[in-house]
Amino acid sequence: MAKQNQSTGKTLVGHGGEPHQTVASDGVRLTTNQGLVIADDQNTLTVGERGPQLLEDHIMREKITHFDHERIPERVVHARGYAAHGYFQAYKSHAGLTKAGFLQDPSVQTPVFCRFSTVAGRAGSFDTARDVRGFSVKFYTNEGNYDLVGNNIPVFFIQDAIKFPDLVHSVKPEPDRDFPQAQSAHNTFWDFVSLNSEAMHMLMWIMSDRAIPRSFRMMEGFGVHTFRMINKKGESKFVKFHWRPKLGTFSLIWDEAVKIGGADPDFHRRDLWNAIEAKDFPEWELSVQAFSESQAAEFDFDALDPTKLIPEELVPLTPLGKMVLNRNVDNFFAETEQVAFCPSHVVPGIDFSNDPLLQGRLFSYLDTQLSRLGSPNFHQIPVNKPKCPFANFQRDGHMQTEVPTGRVANEPNSLDDGQPREDPKAGFTTFAAEESGKKLRIRPESFADYYTQARLFWKSMTEPEQRHIVGGFAFELGKCDVVKIRTRMLGHLKNVDKNLAEQVATALGMKGQGDSIKPRVSVGDPDPSKPLSQYAAAPKTLSGKKIGLLITAGVDDKLLTAIREAANAEGAMLSIVAPRAGEIETSGGKKVMPEHFLAGAPSVLFDCIIVAPTKADELEKEADAVDWIRNAFAHLKVIGYTETATRLFEKASVALDADDGIVDVSDGKLDKFVQQAKEYRIWDREPNVRSM
Ligand code: HDE
To answer: Which residue stretches does the UniProt record annotate as biased composition, category Polar residues (predicted)?
Structure first.
């Protein structure tokens, strides 16, 4: 039916007979890209009412042509990402370590743009794939943009950049069939890594819970390579960068990650967006492990080898400052898609090491931006543009948006006041490291220990974490149907830890099998390093976590208020789920709008749940409600219930006295529930719900 337009008072009928809005006399008018005001954006120019369309319709052609070219090549890796704006603030001056301006003054907030990503999947894949996560931060400092382009895992698969295309080809969908998407669980990947012993340490991480983070907000970040910091006196230290999330580091359970992939493929991006919209701003601490070259010479591994980490027992962390993400993007494409990170973007006081992987990256990122963004002027795109002045004589090129003035575009010159000019005092100078040697293609012998740190990681895990690593290997190798690849991998695992290899072999039904692979150097037996475990010292907190509450019409107001208050007090988010999408009335006649309806919100979306139907036996015929409990139990979650839910638990075959993680909240007292939920998972339950 046609309606009156509020602003113009005109009655309008758009395509399909629906009314549509036109502009008020003082409003913004729809125009073409040339500024021509458009009178009708709903109907193409035709000959007569029902006649053919005219090529003359430049307005329609401009719109469709622009649309046809809306896509740019997605990133070859890290295609699926999500980002936000924020700031970095140093805790104090770190002048002793570096002259980098953004690390000098604790009163300065440096703007940042931070992008998280998965690596293997396409831009349209799902968030919870087993994968490394990218953790890139662009600092818009007064001395130019500094990009710290890291991952959520502190080591990498390969030692030399020349192997990167092969690694990536192996993990991407297999080229003949174009599947599987966003998965490492397939033949080409396991074939490649099993032929590259240097990948063993990284494989331990990638098969661990680290590869299925609960949230970007609960994920660590690492610079991976050894970098340099240089102070005003010209003194240099090697550094490794670490980001630590304020909320603690938490992960999903594999079965949960798989199910979330279907229930909410945008789980991580939605989580970040929602937290920022709710002003629950995520925060990370930036630290470095700083060490001298002579210290590095004492390590029993090479600090330039990106498959090695430095145990914190050897070099503790020095906290530098904090990053807070407090603003979502205004436009995903303009900002998140067009942001261009390059590890070569450094500022005075930060420099590179000879890590061969880093050296290769210094070339690759600028090159990729040229083809991805299509122009050497990508630094002019707002998200990439330095927030400090910049000036040089680089000119022209595709999509030049600046209009440089003046007659001169060369340097030196004496015609245009000689500007701009180099500044040897403030400018970037490369650390004058001593280098000599023959030209060779050779891997240093000091990179040859492929197993000791893989073993260090394994030994540092808690029991549940070890179980998950075994499960990860078994799942992935189970999807690899070439037996020789499995036996090769089992051979590597035997070198890491006999017990690990045996458990994986048993899970695969290949007990006692595995190649004999002779390590190049003898494998060490390091002491565990506690910080490598997520759960050994995990904070007991509900902060930033999500409580799912299943209710029905007539829910008790007192109970609802008590749950709300408990969630608020703990800094947790409460999500109300009801059988239908519409408003429901509480016992006191208040209206509550559920955030989700049951069929659209399985319990995998929440960190802990409370099941509180109003009437006994209610919901017991709802498979989704039964699954809510069954899955939450299998995923080791803390479950609160009211007595009215008893039969539902019976249906789900979950005993109310199964363990301390099942808590009666009928009386509206939430203390015990909160205390249990702060544990995050009931790890002791795991052997009872999953034998492998
Ligand atoms: Fe990357 N990597 N990478 N990478 N990488 C890219 O650059 C590359 C490596 C990382 O949010 C690409 O703009 C090579 C390690 C992140 O936009 C490309 C090598 C680490 C991102 C590229 C590596 C990373 C990328 C693809 C081996 C952790 C996403 C699109 C030498 C320290 C950045 C792009 C964003 C993206 C190349 C290895 C992290 C092709 C050659 C190690 C977080 O340039």
So the answer is: 1-10
